Amino acid sequence: MPNIDIPIEEMNKTLKVTPAPGMAETFQQTGLLQLELVNLSNYAIIFPPDFNIKLFLKSGDEWKTTSNLFQYADGNTEIRPKGEYPSDALVNLMPSLDSNQTSTMLRVVVLGKVEATNKVVGAYIDIPLP
């Protein structure tokens, strides 16, 4: 995937991303997606205000980048290690989709840094588009 330095097979090991409850209905009504990020590691993970979200639309066999229209507040977000509270966080995003788009799949990639090591970790989820 463009602009992602972590191999896809290394993702979803330290961090997991899942749809938040009610996400499909909210997306159909407003274009807003809400996802839950869960820390699977023994260390805190730090995210910048936009959670380093990268969005891709599937076009044939390729993933092409698209914009995130959601505006984030300033300040980093810390997700505590597994077993501590809170070891998860909700994140909103709004993919830029034009009315003529033919893609049927959106890939959301989220990147953060392990606080103890500064190692970049990531997770992704593929979301079918209506």
How would you explain this protein's 3D organization?
The protein is mostly beta strands. The protein has a single domain, classed as Immunoglobulin-like (Sandwich). Helix content is 6%, strand content 42%. The chain is built from 1 helix and 9 strands. It has one helix at 23-30, and strands at residues 15-19, 33-39, 45-47, 54-59, 62-66, 77-79, 88-93, 105-114, 120-128. The strands form 2 sheets. Strands 3, 4, 5, 6, 8 and 9 form a 6-stranded antiparallel beta sheet that branches. A 3-stranded antiparallel beta sheet has the order 1-2-7. Strand 4 and strand 5 form a beta hairpin. The protein is globular, with a radius of gyration of 15 Å. 25% of the residues are buried. The model has no long low-confidence stretch (mean pLDDT 91).
